[in-house]
């Protein structure tokens, strides 16, 4: 039975359980809900829960574990000697899986009967062209040991699936009957459901944490692989980023880190003053009508996808800067500082524009949190509005604003699209903002999307870069949150 | 409490510092102050009493145009300070507030050092020509606010680190450092314990020598202890205004009497 229908069956069973559990509980109280310990729906929910939850849990675990078990059993069938010179066990296994899926597909499309499909012989029939006819393309001729492995793979999968169906349905039925039998007026169904709800919430919370841990761990292991293939000293302390495919790449993070920090710094130089001043205007000067439309308008900026900002950099800001600072005779100022539209400045300015709403809406919240009493105190002494802002409001809000700036910095460091389209792809140390440069994020993309072998250091370096980036932004975020929280305590 | 000396207090006539004529205040459609006429004298402590929401704070804030900071607030009528209308177009509200200082209900020291809190006003208004003069002003103000002895060794410590009573006296020092002519106080003791309250009250009595003080208070005893004139507000009206002794012993209006004897509040 396909898993989809199995799930539908389990859900139907639990819906039935809900209705029956509710009925039985009511009946045990003589039809009067007041004599029940809990509301009738709780009894229903209890039965539904006991039916569905264990069965679905078994299903989920089974679906995760079965492929791993089968993979191990089948790969043990493939003799060391039958693995061709230039490939590996995992490549052979992927052939096996593909063949097995192809045969199942052929049976599904009634091209072969179940019986025929198991009776195939690689010597007598041309399996490759047969499967081609049902739309499954195989990479090479089928070798006998691969066919044998594929057949046992199918065998194991299908018996595993049958067993899973049986076990899941059985557990659903057991849960159903146990809970149904319990549904009488003394049973504290409400408390059981309460615990169920809590379990659900805990599950959600731990999933979020576990995925984070999973992501970090997977990056960590790939990074370890990378450091197995490439000297860590070169990665952290080298000065050149020059991947090539001859095996003597220089893969140092420093030029990329420089590009990242340089572009981010320019972005912050644009975003912080503009965003902060906008926030001050909105929170201290603007009337309620201006505020009512200006604030949402500013926040729309935050909703624009970064790829659109990238286009803006590529098509508008880059050429504009080029016209101002480059093109010699044809330029506005007759300068030759800039030779192409992609530059640190282009990416930095556009990224700064992207960050303006981020900085302004965070600072606005923080400035609004400064107690009105402080403003009154200053105004009451005969200070003007701007004196009050400069000498009382901003100093009071400063820690929070610093936190907001750090959060903005960590967004700038993680930004990719704008850099791809605005900054170019040259990794180098240079202080000239009119030159092309590149960042950690864009190099991760280009190292992973190339056509290279996945096990080469040129590809694996992406994980080391990713992990470094993660540590960097995590550090910034923790620092920012620490500062913001410390500041919150001041007024609560 | 000791209402006896209130009655014995001699009341000499003094010059009028602030005169309000037919003042009305609206918050949007709410009519918060209705046709108030009052004369506040120099070198006098004037108390505003009345049930909460009757408009005491609103009226007090009209006297230094702090209501300007509230968008929906509208003031009509005349308020004259030394005979000049403070709502006149030519008057700069910022300059006015330097002359009419204010102390708020909740102590609100700035998150700065004690020294910077007190020197804030003098710095803004350029009252000191050099550091030494500034230090002198700060010390004088802190002494007058009766807090110098407690803080003289920690002028660099943050003002927010003081106790509530100390903070309020710091705010008073901050207000008098600007050398105002009138000091407005909106329930300055409501966040303080009895000891701190007594200190502030004593201070108010001393301040009378150089300023005219207007104090909003919820405590009848406090009004009786510190003020020479009392104004009773009710639902936005100024019901009765006169010498404190008379208001407390022989009120003319039945509403005043009910309030003072605790029947409305
Ligand atoms: N900022 C404001 N906006 C709107 N209405 C206000 C505002 N401040 C005070 N009011 C109203 O004005 C009236 C007088 O308030 P207030 O002067 O604070 O009274 P009191 O200080 O005597 O307790 C009240 O009805 C109050 O609701
Ligand atoms: Mg009030």
Describe this protein's structure.
The complex is a heterodimer of chains A (492) and B (265). Chain A is mainly α. In chain A, 75% of the residues lie in helices and 1% in strands. Chain A contains 17 helices and 2 strands. Chain A has helices at 3-28, 40-77, 89-108, 114-119, 127-133, 144-182, 189-229, 232-237, 253-285, 288-303, 306-325, 344-369, 372-380, 385-414, 417-422, 440-449, 457-491; strands at residues 241-242, 250-251. With 265 residues, chain B is an alpha/beta fold. Chain B has a single domain, classed as Rossmann fold. In chain B, 37% of the residues lie in helices and 25% in strands. In chain B, a hairpin with a 2-residue loop joins strand 9 and strand 10. Chain B is globular. Classes of the chains: A mainly alpha (492), B alpha/beta (265). Magnesium ion binds next to helix 2 of chain B.
List the helices and strands and how they pair.
The complex is a heterodimer of chains A (492) and B (265).
Chain A: H1 3-28, H2 40-77, H3 89-108, H4 114-119, H5 127-133, H6 144-182, H7 189-229, H8 232-237, E1 241-242, E2 250-251, H9 253-285, H10 288-303, H11 306-325, H12 344-369, H13 372-380, H14 385-414, H15 417-422, H16 440-449, H17 457-491
Antiparallel strand pairs in A: 1-2
Helix pairs in contact in A: 1-2, 1-6, 2-6, 2-7, 3-6, 7-17, 9-12, 9-14, 10-12, 11-12, 12-14, 13-14, 14-17, 16-17
Chain B: H1 4-8, E1 16-27, E2 30-41, E3 45-49, H2 56-62, E4 73-81, E5 84-85, H3 93-99, E6 100-103, H4 114-125, H5 131-144, H6 148-151, H7 164-177, E7 182-186, H8 194-207, E8 212-216, H9 220-226, E9 229-234, E10 237-243, H10 244-249, H11 254-260
Parallel strand pairs in B: 3-8, 3-9, 6-7, 7-8
Antiparallel strand pairs in B: 1-2, 1-4, 4-5, 9-10
Helix pairs in contact in B: 4-5, 4-7, 5-7, 7-8
Magnesium ion binds next to helix 2 of chain B.
